[in-house]
């Protein structure tokens, strides 16, 4: 294989040859080979595809520190001119601290990507939410030139994740007033918000809004959020009835929410088991142990 590399490089010095080799090695899990090809390229030969492929490969194989280090080297060697939104988005999973996230945000600001590329903006919103910097996320959101359903949902989710129910629902209703159509993920965040705030009736209204006003078909994660809400508010029997009426097969997270709500109450655990049998669902790990313990 190394001889093949040498013969190809003799024929052509264009970077697409090396880029193809890097991609091939990354796809075949030969990360060291990809690194050797990349290191053998001069600074002037490496292009955006070379850097992109290496960074993407590192992230795919969970080598996040290497991905971030390579990103910094790219900026050092090539300057901001080589940066594109795709590279910035791909390097985001390598971020392991708020400081690193702000660093990536800074690069995006210099290139104007925060306002022009909604995909990059959404990844920043998720990053700030992940590290609890909700106010930073809100400031970024307010400064966006254009917003789509993804960015609205990212901000609604950020508020929901950190218990800011009032802000989450306010933003959701603002989104509706501006004529944007929420998607299923948006509604899951709304249901989670209602669950945290104990807004059962409001959640039911939003569920009807999802299906009737927007014509969305509920997905499993929508049902799971509603079941979790009913369990959190102590409405276990209603949760069981809701599960039995669902047009989709219950998943492990749904049963897990029920199990967490019944704790060590043997009668309720037995009731869940009976419902699972009616739904033709195998035992969820933990249910049998709960039954035996009691």
TrEMBL record:
<dbReference type="InterPro" id="IPR046960">
    <property type="entry name" value="PPR_At4g14850-like_plant"/>
</dbReference>
<dbReference type="GO" id="GO:0003723">
    <property type="term" value="F:RNA binding"/>
</dbReference>
<feature type="repeat" description="PPR">
    <location>
        <begin position="219"/>
        <end position="253"/>
    </location>
</feature>
<feature type="repeat" description="PPR">
    <location>
        <begin position="148"/>
        <end position="182"/>
    </location>
</feature>
<dbReference type="Pfam" id="PF01535">
    <property type="entry name" value="PPR"/>
</dbReference>
<dbReference type="GO" id="GO:0099402">
    <property type="term" value="P:plant organ development"/>
</dbReference>
<dbReference type="InterPro" id="IPR002885">
    <property type="entry name" value="PPR_rpt"/>
</dbReference>
<dbReference type="InterPro" id="IPR011990">
    <property type="entry name" value="TPR-like_helical_dom_sf"/>
</dbReference>
<dbReference type="Pfam" id="PF13041">
    <property type="entry name" value="PPR_2"/>
</dbReference>
<keyword id="KW-0677">Repeat</keyword>
<dbReference type="GO" id="GO:0009451">
    <property type="term" value="P:RNA modification"/>
</dbReference>
<protein>
    <recommendedName>
        <fullName>Pentacotripeptide-repeat region of PRORP domain-containing protein</fullName>
    </recommendedName>
</protein>
């Amino acid at each position: 294989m190394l001889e093949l590399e040498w013969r190809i490089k003799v024929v052509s010095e264009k970077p697409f040859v090396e880029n193809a080799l890097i991609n091939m090695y990354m796809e075949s899990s030969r990360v060291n080979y990809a690194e050797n090809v990349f290191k053998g390229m001069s600074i002037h030969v490496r292009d955006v595809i070379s850097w992109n492929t290496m960074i993407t490969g590192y992230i795919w194989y969970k080598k996040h520190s290497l991905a971030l280090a390579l990103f910094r080297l790219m900026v050092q060697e090539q300057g901001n001119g080589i940066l594109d939104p795709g590279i910035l988005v791909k390097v985001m999973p390598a971020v392991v601290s708020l400081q690193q996230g702000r660093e990536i945000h800074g690069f995006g600001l210099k290139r104007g990507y925060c306002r022009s590329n909604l995909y990059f903006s959404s990844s920043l919103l998720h990053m700030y939410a992940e590290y609890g910097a909700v106010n930073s996320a809100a400031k970024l959101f307010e400064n966006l030139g254009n917003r789509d359903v993804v960015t609205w949902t990212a901000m609604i989710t950020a508020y929901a994740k950190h218990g800011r129910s009032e802000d989450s629902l306010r933003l959701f209703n603002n989104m509706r007033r501006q004529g944007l159509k929420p998607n299923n993920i948006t509604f899951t965040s709304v249901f989670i918000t209602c669950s945290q705030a104990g807004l059962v009736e409001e959640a039911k209204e939003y569920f009807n809004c999802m299906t009737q006003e927007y014509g969305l078909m509920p997905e499993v994660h929508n049902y799971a959020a509603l079941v979790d809400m009913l369990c959190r508010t102590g409405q276990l029997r209603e949760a069981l009835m809701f599960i039995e009426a669902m047009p989709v097969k219950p998943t492990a997270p749904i049963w897990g929410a029920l199990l967490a709500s019944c704790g060590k109450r043997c009668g309720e655990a037995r009731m869940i088991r009976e419902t699972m049998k009616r739904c033709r669902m195998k035992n969820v790990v933990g249910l049998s142990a709960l039954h035996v313990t009691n």
